[in-house]
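Case study 2.
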Amino acid sequence: MITEVVVYNIESALNAQRGGADRVELCDNPGGGGTTPSSGTIAVVREVLDISLFVMIRPREGDFCYSDLEFEAMKGDIARAKELGADGVVFGILSPDGTMDRERNRELIALARPLKVTAHRAFDMTRNPTEALESCIEVGFDRILTSGQQEDAQQGIPLISTLVQQANDRIAIMAGCGVHEGTVEEIIKKTGVNEIHLSAETTRPSRMRYRNGQISGMGSTAGREYLIDTASASRVKEIRNRGSRV
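Prediction:
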């Protein structure tokens, strides 16, 4: 069982490794579902990690239908991730009709090689998952991250199971979203996946001693200025152990 932990800061990446993760997916902007992290963060995480590092390539939050300029930004981010020593990249581009954009995805995959390439949950927003899976195989993705087109992977068990059977080892299916201590065994047992994606989140207090009580937080984080979200090493270990028992 391969365990991938999505992380949004350096501390979380280290905790994921400490908890026994096989791979981290490094992102920025958790509130927006994950966007491309900074080059500086990628470089530092690559330096401190011994495990596999995949980098999110997503120029903004929102849908997965990108402009020509956003597409150029994605190409630049892939090139930079390669230069910084990433083991893989994670992206997905959709056409306005809800299908996988074969041409653009194929171009990005060619640019990314020899890195591994994951189709992220843009897949869950496609109109026909059976068709989308075949498109992912056709253009060369190595794996698909999916919640079974539901709010979480537990609800998506029926479709994830179907996708595993349809894939028939031609592409890896990784279950993600809502994979935690209470769901991991059921998800693995009922779907047959060999890879899981999780956050194992916890929150710690800020180390700041001085705190300005007149400002509750920056941007959309009002009320959380002095709370830091991180991955929990102990939770990663527990979820991984439960998944390995199935």
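Helices lie at 10-18, 39-48, 68-83, 102-112, 129-139, 157-167, 184-191, 233-244.
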